Every structure is written in C-alpha cells, then in structure tokens.
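Hello forum,

I keep getting stuck at the same step: I have a sequence, I want structure tokens, and every attempt I make locally crashes halfway through. Rather than fight my setup again tonight, could one of you with a working pipeline run this one for me? It's a single chain of 859 residues.
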Amino acid sequence: MTHPSRTDPSRTDPSRTAPTRVDLPHPHPSRTGEAVTSLGIPEPDAEIEGQQESPRLDLRLLIPALSAWAVLVAAVVHDVRTQLLGALACLLTGAFLLWLAGRSTRRGRRRERRWWLQISGLLALSLVATSLVLGASAAHRATEHAGTVPELAQERAVVTLTGVVLTEPRVITRGDERPDLVVLELRVTHVVGRGEGSSVGTPVVVFADKQWAGVPWRGTVTARARLGPPDPGDSVVAVATPLDPPTLHGEQGRVLAGVEHVRERLRQAVDPLPVDARALIPGLVIGDTSLTPPDLSDAMLATGMSHLSAVSGSNVAIVLGVAVLFCGWVGVPRRWRPLVALVCLVGFVLLCRPEPSVLRAGAMGVVGLIGLSASRRSVSLPALGTAVLVLLCWDPWLARSYGFALSTLATLGLVVFARPWGDAIASRLPRRLSLLGDAIAIPLAAQVVCAPVIVLLQGTVSTVAVLTNLLAAPFVAPTTIAGIGAALAGTVWLPLGVLVAWVAALPAWLIGAVARWGATVPMGTIGWVEGVAGAWLLTLLTVAVLALGPWLRWHARRRPGLAWAPLLLGLALVWPTPGRHGWPPQDWVVAGCDVGQGDAFMVPTGPGRVVLIDTGPDPALLATCLDLLGVEQVDGLVLTHFHADHVGGIDALLGRVPVAAAYVTPVRDPPADADQVLADLAAANIPTYAVTSGDSLVWGDSGQVRGEVVWPPPERAGSGSLGANDASVVLDLTVSTATGDLPQAGGRGAEPGDGIRMLFTGDIEPGAARGVRRALAGAQFDVLKVAHHGSAAQDESLVTGIGATVALIGVGADNTFGHPSRTALSMLAETGTVVLRTDRDGAYALVLTEAGLGVTTQK
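Reply #2:
Ran it on my machine without issues. Output:
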C-alpha cells in the first residue's frame, strides 16, 4: 500500500475536492511539518485524520445573497419607483455580463479567460439576486401603501379600522402617573375615513391602553382610532391611537387556539419557579420574554448571552437534533426522518408564533445544523445564501433588523469556522477532552463574526462572551427540551407540567447565574469606538487577525516575548487605574450616574462629599456610582418627586452612607410611594424638609455650592393642582470656582466669576416649565438637566433660551418610552448644546479644565 504522504498527485481523482491544507509561506517551517489553514487555526495532522479532505466552501450563492442584502439596507426605505428602477437596472446589467461571458466562451478563449468568466458570472448572479430582492421589496411597498391609509395618516384623521393582529400585545409599564401602554402591530384590511371606505393590506403600529392587552394574536379587531404618520424609516405605514376598546370578530381557529392553550399552560407551570428560571424557560421555549427582569436582561446583554433569553437558531437546531436522534432510537426509516424533523420544526415555530424573528431563527437553525454536519457541510453556504434571499423576499425590512444580522452572521461563523476550529482545538487536547473542541469553537466562531454588529448596538466589546456562552451551553438543551416537555405535559395535566418545569428550572437558573456572574467580572466589557466607524474598525481588525493568523502564530512560536508584549501593552492601556486617570476625575463639578431609566446626579461639596439629586430606580446601580465617585457623605439629598425612577434607589444610602439632610417636594404623589420614602427617611433619622420656590440652600464648608429652589410655588403646591411630575423640585444650583486655580465659567450670557450654574428640572411638563421660565426671567446657565429624561413634552423656550452649553439626560438603554425623543434632541441640536446621556455614555462627569468645561465618560 502506498503511504499517504507519498501519493502521486497525478493519480488523484480530479473530481475530488482539494484539501484545505496550505504550507507556511516561510523558508523555515515548523519541525513537525504541521500545516495551518489560511484562517490561522492549525489543522490536525494529516496522518491522524486519515488524509480526509475537507470540502471546499461554496461561495457562489452566498456572495450574491450578501450583496443583495447590502443594497436592500439602503433601498428598502425608498419609494416603489426607485426600487423598481434599481431592480430593472440590476437585471439588465446582469444579463449583459452573462452575454459577454457567453461570447467569450464561443470564441474558444475560455481557458485563457477563466478568471473573467468566474468574476462576470459572480457579478451577474449578484445583480440578479439584487434585482430579485428589490423587486420583492417594491411589491411589498406597493401593496402596503395602496389605499387611503397613508393619506389619512398624514391628515391625522379619525377612522374606523378593521385588521388582523400581527404581534402579541406588549404591555409597557411607565414609571409615572400615566397609565400602562400596550403596543402591537396590526395589518389593516379595511378602513373607513372621511366618508370613504377602502379595502387595504397596510401595516400600522398601535399604541393603546390596557383594554387592548387581551386581543389574541392573529385575531381580527375593529376600533375607531386616530392615525398619524410614522417616524422616517419605519416599516409601518401609520401610527394608530385607538379611541375605543377593540371589537373582536369571530373565533380563533383550532390550531391557534390549541397553541395558545399550550403557551398559557407553560406560563402557569413555571409560575412557582425562581425568578431567573421563570423568565428563561418561556423565553427559550415560546419566545416570551415578558417575565425577564431588567437586571437579568442587562446581564445577558453584557455577557453576549442575549440570544439565550429568547428563541434563536440554536433552539431550533436543538429541537431538530433531538427529533433526528429520537427517530434513530425508535427505528424510524431514514427516508422518513426529514419529514419527522419538518413536522417538529413546524410545531415548534407554531408554538413560538411564526413572527419574523421566529421564522428567521428557524431558517438559520436549519442551516446551522447542516453546517455542523461533516457530511453536508459543502451545501451549508448555498443553503445560507438561499435562506437569506428567501427571508429578504418574504420580509424586506429584515434587511435593517439587527436580529437578522446577528442570526445570519452567527450561522455564517458556525458554517465556516466552527468545524475546522473545533477539529484543530480537539487535536491539541487529550482524547478524553476532545469533545471540548466543538464546545469552545462554536461560541468562539459566533462571537468573532458577530462582534462588529454587537459593537454597533452597544459600543462595547465583551471579553467574557466566549467563556460565558461556553459555560452556559450545556444547560441550553436541557432547558429547551424539558421546557417543551413542561408545556406539553401541562396541557394534559397542570401539576405534571409543574413537575417537569422543575426539571428545567435547574439548568435555566444556571444559565442566569452564569450571566449574572459574567456581568460582574472586572474588564468584562471594554469600551470601543461607537457607531458605524467602530463596527468597521473591529471588522478590519478581525479580518486582519484571521488573514495573518499563520504568520502571527509562526512568529509567536519563534519569539514568545514579542508575542506577549502587544498583549500586555493592550491590557495596560485599557486596565483601569486609580488617580488622575481613573474615577473620580479631578476637578469635577457634576456627574450623571448610570442608574438605568431614572435620574441620579451628584455635585461635589468637598472631598468625598456630594449633593445628590434623585437616586434612580435601583439601589445597586446607585451604590456602584457612589463607589465610583468615592462618596463618603451626602451633604444634601434632593428628591425632586416621588416616582420610583427618582427615589427607588434610596436604600443605597440608608444605613450605608451618612446623609446630613433631605429636601423633598411638598406634593405627596404618588401617595403610597411618598409615604414609604418619608417613613424610610424618618426611620434613618435623616432631617427632611419640604421646599418650595424662594428657598435657599447652601452646602460645603465654605458655601461653595448654593441652590435656589425655583419650583414649585407654595400656593400651587398646597392647592392640589399639581401632579407628581409638575410638582418636581426645580433647582438653580451654582458651584463656585472663585477659590480655585481654574478659570471661572458662566453661561453663554452669564457674567464671568459667577461659577458653574446648573438647572435641574426633575420631570416637569410644559405647563410647569413655562412657570419655571417666567420665574427665571431670562437667567443664563451653563448646564441643563433635561426634564423627564428627554421626553417630547418640553417647553422649547426654556430648553433653547437659557443658553446652556451642556445638557444632561438620565435615561436607560433600550427603554420602552422612546427617551430621549427626537423632539428634545432637535431642540438641543439647534442651539449647539452638547448632550450627555447615560444610555450611550454610561456614567459621565463635567470637569473644569484650562479651556473651561470638559467631559469625561465611563464608556
């Protein structure tokens, strides 16, 4: 027998795909003769692998699909005419390229121009794919904009709508006196307005009250509503605000009613479980994330595990994999197994609701399962390209969906990198641990490919995502399978469903525990350049590392010291250090704490001492900010009003940090929250004073911080005419700089030497804001704390007329209120005001520099 290493290449079957091994382009290869792939991951030794050849990855359909996707991102917002012209241009250009290629072939110069044939064929296919998705998008847009709804929306008309509910109603709890909000999407089938009826197929988003919370998914409803235009770039055609409760028509079909029964039984079955398990099991099984607490959502996001808190392609792959294994155990013939898997897939999609995110997950789960199969890996990329094109034709707005991008890229990473990286890692592990190769490679491949999109979303890079996903991976399948079992068992008998749910509780709780632990790891997330620039920078860096992998690895082996030096230098650059380069920053005059959807601002009155204005909703987040700024004593605690997003974090102070005195609004609204806060302050022996306009406050050993209460006026506060927001304490606060070495600062119209003047406005609405504006009588400020987290309800004359150079906004990332609003941001942009917001900047501080006010942020 001929030794494999001496096989004559000329005897090799030309139909076989060439191996992916390449030799190192260096005159001094390694002593073992080890080969590496062009991606920088070493391949197992050829003799160990039995000279098995890896199939080539077929990019001929994937590249056209990705090209079409990139074009659709920009084109989907344009009108039908523009999209049709683009589709026609792409189709004609593709046909012309194919004609040129065919002409070159007929002239007998195919061998000489093979490169031209390949490139022209790929370009032609890309143009045809682009034409396909543009044509589909134009057809969708023409259908959706047909009828009278767009015109009625521009006129803000009151109409009678009949439509089908497309998404499950989502209840948004607002942290003020306003009632809860219900959001859902409706496909309008009939509209009556301005005396004219029209049959349409138009998608609208509905913002309603809690009377709409019970409308069934895919149910048909009728109601009077006021239409309005959507924001530019939205996928819906109009915004509807119902004026009446919904009227339901007909009954749900048996299939949908049965699915809803199973979903409800699962919710009931997990009700007795611990919080994290109760949240994650419905998320993984039926895509219901309504039970997920905000702190767990934040932890999952910070650790790159957010895909595990809801239905994703991995769940679909698990269900299909278990179905195939079950078929093997019970002896189902192979020809029937794809049909069984298809039935299971359809059932799982119905259980999760066939909404766009679930269908996307289903398609990517199937492709990912193909990619991880050694026997079918060669068809995985064409399958991925097909899935992308089909999904984009089915719903063109997926082109702009971050979820679609993350699913597609994660699947691409699994298909291209997971198998070779897993084999390479396994070849360097003991045989008993070889299974860890795939376990490490799968999250690593997904994280590497998805990182640029995650940076676009978060502005940070997670350093623990691979580790946390690796630790959580063993618990995902047991949670999913046991969760499905709980849903089915609960349908038969609820106590049995509860029992099976407890089986799923332990792995689900462990997933949550991994996320919460990962979120506390120092340097778990690293700040990065935000926006598109940051995404492209990380993309280029990733491609460079993958492309230069063999060269870097060879030099790292030859000179280990040089390999460690850049890594240590990078750690030194990003590692937080105390003193001038850390926090608290020197010469800071005001800081905004990242406490989620709420306000917490601090003004220093001395070393380790501050005035704290509001506490935010979460004691843990406020405690983190207190530690960050080195606060040892609170000289004054100002609680602008008693809503939870301004007083909920007070437990971080009581019994932990000395508080000299508290200053509150005299309006006790909401009554229960106000009574609780005042009782807590009294129990902690903190002197508490109700303040109104005209009161003066002084803090600091030399009185360097002075405050004047501007609002509420005593007569309004005692009349009961002010709600909680409009009763907010508005504080005109000045930090003196006359005793320091730094230059004086003042508002755009303030006199030099007055110090830094700031206006804290709580959550006042426009009515109260007009009273504040009159009370200020044209005073100028350096800093404005924007009212109500930057909501649209602003008094423009106050926002733009006080001359503030910096605006502070306390707002939570991914909040459901739309804060800060475009309206508020536009007002500030018109005056050139620098905007600092905790959802993007994290904790931030204004500092005095030689040039005046400067900014330092934690992100």
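Residues 1-54, 577-581, 739-753 have pLDDT under 50 and may be disordered. If your local run keeps crashing, start a new thread with the error log.
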